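Bench log, entry 3. Co-assembly request; chain sequences pasted below exactly as received.
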Amino acid sequence: MKKPRKPQIAVIGRDLHANEELLSEAEKVGRLIAEKGGILVCGGHGGIMRAAAKGAKSEGGLTVGILPELDKNNANEYIDIAIPTGMHQARNMIIPLAADAVIALAGGVGTLSEMCLAYIYRKPIIALVGHGGWSEKLAGSYIDEKKLVKIIPAHSAEEAVELAFKIIDESKK
Amino acid sequence: MKKPRKPQIAVIGRDLHANEELLSEAEKVGRLIAEKGGILVCGGHGGIMRAAAKGAKSEGGLTVGILPELDKNNANEYIDIAIPTGMHQARNMIIPLAADAVIALAGGVGTLSEMCLAYIYRKPIIALVGHGGWSEKLAGSYIDEKKLVKIIPAHSAEEAVELAFKIIDESKK
Amino acid sequence: MKKPRKPQIAVIGRDLHANEELLSEAEKVGRLIAEKGGILVCGGHGGIMRAAAKGAKSEGGLTVGILPELDKNNANEYIDIAIPTGMHQARNMIIPLAADAVIALAGGVGTLSEMCLAYIYRKPIIALVGHGGWSEKLAGSYIDEKKLVKIIPAHSAEEAVELAFKIIDESKK
Amino acid sequence: MKKPRKPQIAVIGRDLHANEELLSEAEKVGRLIAEKGGILVCGGHGGIMRAAAKGAKSEGGLTVGILPELDKNNANEYIDIAIPTGMHQARNMIIPLAADAVIALAGGVGTLSEMCLAYIYRKPIIALVGHGGWSEKLAGSYIDEKKLVKIIPAHSAEEAVELAFKIIDESKK
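Structure output for the full assembly:
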């Protein structure tokens, strides 16, 4: 019998201006996703995306980078599989679509647009709080009155990854 | 000599649950855009999009609907030019790209994602306040710390359209 | 009662290396589309796209350019409504989707990819013969064994435009 | 030092109507890609895509399916990583973009559109001959007069995969 596909978990967050503490948290998130057998999906660029991919690779995990540009070589050095879309910010739709759950760390406008699309497509969204940005602002609430999915707050990398796997497991029952 | 292209102004806002007052405001926005010689760009569906297109047509204006689905016939009856993208929510990137300025009326998650993309691509964004939704929440602020463009508040349909044309005119100087 | 939307007719063909005769034919196609009340849809760039748009404007017609890049200003000077997609060649799907019928003039690989997408989405495709390129090679045949739509040969600009309108009219019955 | 990313090789070809001999050839192509350490990229659906993924998995390889629809679960059972794009046929651009080389087996209009995009983006294209379809028709030629990349004929699964890896190796020198 064919084994089920491994969970694909997206980590989204800012490219630039991430401080050391936040990057270290992103790396931990990536590591824990790999430890638990998940595949890391991200935007393939720097900052939080690179830190999360670095963490996943430190545990021998698998990493996917979905890029806005045409060139595979723009993926960071921790990306195993580079998927260039050539569609600029429209790739922000493909990242949540490719995810069974999304973990948001801080993040500016790009992250917010990905949270919106994850919400529209009813993906579980976990927001790591304590680091500012849109994940902090939206944690615990719905993005709009349609109340499609609540943004679930997590207070540590461990809690964020545990929540992601728990929700994915429950969705299979 | 070839005349310059007419200004293309996007009106974004909720599809469902728009009350009569808001729809009437959207219709006024559409009408004023047409009066001033602008082309109305919108998502082509119902609610605010339909009301704005109806307003523009009442003044003999031109209306463009950029649709998420494959089928041209899903455009509302006030759309002159239907552009189906077949790309679901990724069409939310094309609407601001096609606009010289964006006017946001209330709006839920779809509108927020369009405001994000308008912001990323540095389009002037005018938010009509007084009707709740994301345009109200973000009016007067920047979406993130990059401070690319400030969301400009407007307190009436007239002010919103005047601001849009004024900003477009100034950008040409 | 609301009038029906005007027919949207896409003209596709090479950007570069179009000779004078071919450009003159493209201009005639654009002119005739406008004369008969159609809206010209094209890729918004140079060569055949520019010639067709020029022809349509000479008759006071309306022209739409669906661009691969982010910047509206890349549209040629005869485009009334510029729709930048920021999706590179993926915009080749939107052009046939926006069309009630597609007229192909000569054309290289870009045109071929648009003919493929028009075929997949079962749009009427008219190929102007006598100028080489993929429209010549495929005229009178089906692109694959699924036989979705036959590529209809036309031997002049007049015949191409007449066929396009005739097929659109018949599809409404 | 970080190891270089593994080569990503796209296998494209018809979904339906593939006969047993062709499916067996596709399976062999997938198996050989995995044996040589490549990652298989495909459209994630049935027919040749499924056979190639099955072959790759029989050697413990890694398989990526880039889907036209919104739902990850539409990927065939041999796909490890499902990337739903929600962009219908516009996903045909992402498959060649994600590839270091493309191997085309027979194929109808969908395959032809992917060959066009691979050609536009100057990806090495190997066409397995002897099974009809567009890979047969275009083998040994250029798609248009721009002569961007020649479609390289291969007469067996072994030759196709060897050529793909050889070209990728040479491009790194």
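Chain A has a mean pLDDT of 95. Residues 78 and 148 of chain A are 33 Å apart (CA to CA).
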